UniProtKB/TrEMBL annotation:
It comes from Ciona savignyi. Binds 1 FAD. Residues 696-943 form the FAD-binding FR-type domain. This is Nitric oxide synthase. It holds the Pfam family FAD_binding_1.
Amino acid sequence: FASLKNWETNQDFRDTLHVKACPINRCNPEKCNGSIMQPPNMMRDPRDPKPSMDSIKELAKDFINQYFTSMKRNDSEAHSSRLAEVLASISSTGTYELTKNELIFGAKTAWRNAPRCVGRIQWNKLHVFDCRKVTSTREMFDAICVHLKYATNKGNIRSCITFFPPRNDVKTEFRVWNSQLIRYACYRQEDGSLVGDPANLELTELCMRLGWKGKGGRFDLLPLLLQANGEDPELYELPANLVLEVKLRHPEQDWLEQMNLKWYAVPAVSNILLDIGGVEFPAVPFNGWFMGTEIGRDLVDTSRYNMILPMAEAMGLNTKKTSSLWKDKAILELNLAILHSFQSDNVTIMDHHVATESFMKHFANEVKLRGGCPGDWVWLVPPVSGSATPVFHQEILNYTLNPSCLYQPDPWQYYKWKDTVMVKRKNKLHFKELAKSVMVTSRMMKKAMANRIKTTILYATETGKSYAYSLILQEIFNHAFDAKVVAMDQYDICNLEYESMLLVVTSTFGNGDPPENGENFAQMLQKIARDGTDEQKPRKRGVLRRRFQSVTTATPIYRRVSSKQLDVSRDFDSVSQGLLANVKFAVFGLGSRAYPHFCAFAHAVDTLLGELEGERVKEIGEGDEMCGQEECFRNWAQQVFKAACDTFCLQEEVNLEDANASLKSTKFDKSNFRVTVSDVQVEPNYVETLSKMHRKKLSPCRLIRRKNLQSEKSGRSTILIQLEKKNSDVLNFQPGDHLGIYPRNDPALVKALISKIRDATDDSTVVRLEVQDEKKTFIGNFKYWDADTRLPSCTLTMAFSRFLDITTPPTPQLLKLFSECNVNEEQSTALRILGQGESEYEDWKFSNNPNLVEVLNEFPSTQVDASLLLKQLPLLQARYYSISSSPDVYPGEIHCTVSVVTYHTRGGDGPLHHGVCSSYLNSITDEEEVPCFVRMAPTFHLPTKEDAPCILVGPGTGIAPFRSFWQHRISQIQKGASKDRTMALLFGCRNPQQDHLYKDEVETAMKQGAISHAYTAFSREEGKPKQYVQDVIMNDISEFVFDLIHTRNGHFYVCGDVTMAAEVHRTLKDVLCINGGMTPEQVEEYITAMKSEDRYHEDIFGVTLRTYEVNRSLR
Ligand SMILES: Cc1cc2nc3c(=O)[nH]c(=O)nc-3n(C[C@H](O)[C@H](O)[C@H](O)COP(=O)(O)OP(=O)(O)OC[C@H]3O[C@@H](n4cnc5c(N)ncnc54)[C@H](O)[C@@H]3O)c2cc1C
Ligand SMILES: NC(=O)c1ccc[n+]([C@@H]2O[C@H](COP(=O)([O-])OP(=O)(O)OC[C@H]3O[C@@H](n4cnc5c(N)ncnc54)[C@H](OP(=O)(O)O)[C@@H]3O)[C@@H](O)[C@H]2O)c1
Ligand SMILES: Cc1cc2nc3c(=O)[nH]c(=O)nc-3n(C[C@H](O)[C@H](O)[C@H](O)COP(=O)(O)O)c2cc1C
């Protein structure tokens, strides 16, 4: 290693990274090239012989290794197969194509490796425009306009880079001939003097030879000279509206303003070559933002604007003797004025102190992370007050790492013109391209941006709404972006840092937990946020599931990089450099205020993405299923779309009204769908079909026994269902896990529905839904019908029984479609009003909770076609049941305790409704296959420390999982476990005569030592006051609970309805307060600690108790 001393702090840094440096000798034993501007070995000249295939392979191999290592996926299968692919491609073609993610990684790493750049702390925040597919200068020009617009961002400058095609050979080269995208011209006067920026004299003269006519001023924007595919370059005038300039003025003195000086806001270097793993990109304009001293030098250097003397004179300084330090004074005042002017105009700029301080932080961080940080001291120390900045005192090694930024000769030095006549002709107008280019239409900008900005819409859902909303979001985003919808469990989290725009739509389940298909994503995201890596894959699904409510309590970090932040230099180094520094994001949560942790998972995702320093383009949106969920979502979707357009500078290009209208449109064109009789008249196996449809491994079970656990006096039913697994190797579970069941809709309801369909086929005909598509071919476009992929070919009866949800009240969207096919004006209007999803809809839904048949009865003139329902109805979802048996006691079987749901709508006055799944389970015969799967509930398992005391609180059907617990303990005792363990059961029901579930079994379990204590709370016992489980905890067993939880480090389990769980939770806090003398804050901390120690376990069924009242109170 090399030891690097900081002479200011005496701190020593060790650099080991240099051993990975490319063998490019900057210096040799005879001489040091430290101050050479363009060391020959940093120059990639296209006239030199091409690098050998072996050296390209070496670079490629190293780069691919770096890329996979960065994702902690080195030595994975993906790594080795990518490497093999790359090497094979180099063998056969001499090069290879970088994937989009490799390109982004390569671009950022090249910046990170650039020894001369002082602003590298920002290396991770670089937006990449991938324009490797452009074929003409026109397309290059369009892309550059997009780049400038995005980078400028009204002064809040953003770093970005545009990749044009890589080098194949010089004959097909793409290049930007300008050294920066924005440059001022320079005119030689007859007396030999120069007007403008002398740095650009050669290019100005070349442009003029090609027909450009400058105005002869000091700050004329040079046109772009672009070369595509090895052809002669062409001129494009820079649209003035894309170039932001700052007029320079001094904060206190007026001499500067009178000098009429200005400078452009975006420094976009365009003549550097990027070598990424042996692939060379000679045309890659990129920009950061200015450090003030750079502009200062441009204006005062004698080889540039050379303004130092006029300025000193204007300031009245003594320029006669150097010791008056007039030069220093003038430079200093100019630098001050530059910073002042940019800051006053809200244009990003940094001063050299902040820049170097941030570099030192970056340096120290890089030494820690990578074992070193290459740096060119000569360039890093600023041109003014060098020793007053910290880099001055730091020893730094200079070396070249690949990916790297390299110099290349100016193209006019080697390019062989095809149109030699035109080049020689002087001042001959050649405005063809130039004139055209001025027309930067907004349509063009929109197209150019949309081609490039990919948007990923990630969703997680339990019952399908988040998915449906994601599709709506995709619809609106496709007006300006390239949006795709991906389920969280199908998403490779390694892509996260490469996203440009990430939208998350997710619901919350359990009690503040992610939906099942969001669990892995959630764990990985947490892990990345915590450890900065996703290295450790989750052990198994759900095992690491953390309680997400605790994440939401963390203060969200809103670190949007605003111009205000940026131009205040003291905040500069706090600008994000996290993993997602480049990712713009927004989150929408679906939830219900009936739950204490409303939209908790969405909040957790929002917070974590923010902590990883993603840029939040819109505050989180929330949709409460109790009230106006869809309306909230549509409002949010409009706002987030607008915010995204603003962020990507598409405001002027997008017609927001059109886009917003797409949110309102119903998107079902009847003529594009039809139902046809299927060729094969065989019904599919519904278990297999459901498996495919829901991407879940389902196994069929059969009913062995069903028993009503309530007495005949009760009038309600809670049933014990004993199912037999068809295959003993599947559906393995532990006590505490859930069984997922796909139910069947009530046959009578299905029949009633089919009778209302206009074109219904008979009961035994297998049909399929077809959608009309259009194919574009070279002989013309033709339309064809294709099978819709959502549903299989089956009878209508099977579709409505097994696959589609016909009982959940229709969405506003569906009602709108009904209004369109209703032939009665009054009904149609009523449906349309409901279809707006506003308060009328909410009231109607709340009061009637209508199923589909009831809706069609209420609006009988709706002429509904089978295709409409097959296409639009949501899928029938699985229901979960806490497993009520132990596999040790009942191998091959799974038991559930099911409360059979029946209720009258309209608060008791409406028609009788039957819960789909509970009624199905109450009616199945032993012939029928029940499609099942197991959902693990690792946070609800018995303690791993087997003698840990437990309290189990489960009123009503909440007792379900505890039956599996006591059965498990019985089996353990039978195998020799001690009986001296505390397992206290607290059950609640109405009264001992009606619904004291499992009374006998509990007594037996007590005798066998599996349950140590059993308590009951009767809420409707005649002549006695109402008692709930929480009352028993508070009034009867408060000290016992405290002792068990606090003194004996016990576990607390609660299962059932969410309101009950919340009240029990509150009661436990009171118990801790009273018995432990804790303050409310201490109790809060105590319970949080219990949760993270996995001693507080909740199994939430949802809103099951007094559903109507709860909904009403929340409305
Ligand atoms: C993790 C988990 C574990 C569960 N474990 C069990 C268990 O062990 N045992 C058990 O019985 N259930 C359990 N449930 C609940 C179960 O999943 C189902 O929700 C329940 O069986 C009802 O389903 P269903 O298809 O019969 O009713 P659905 O057809 O889904 O009807 C229920 C819906 O009807 C409406 N509704 C119900 N009552 C009223 C009312 N009075 N007024 C107006 N509307 C009303 C509500 O919108 C409610 O959501 C659990 C749920 C979860 C999430
Ligand atoms: N998704 C669903 O909609 C769904 C799912 C499952 C069950 N259900 C329905 O929900 C009901 C629940 O059935 P169940 O057997 O689980 O329970 P239950 O028998 O209705 O209730 C069990 C006990 O809990 C009490 N209780 C009510 N509110 C409570 C609270 N806030 N805190 C503590 N205890 C409370 C009840 O008292 P009181 O009733 O006397 O107040 C009763 O003593 C049934 O009507 C069933 O049809 C609905
Ligand atoms: C068992 C259960 C638990 C739930 N838990 C929560 C919760 O903790 N917080 C919340 O805001 N919503 C909760 N909800 C409500 C859902 O998030 C809400 O119904 C949402 O609209 C479902 O969207 P999805 O179809 O995309 O899953 C829960 C719903 C159920 C059925």
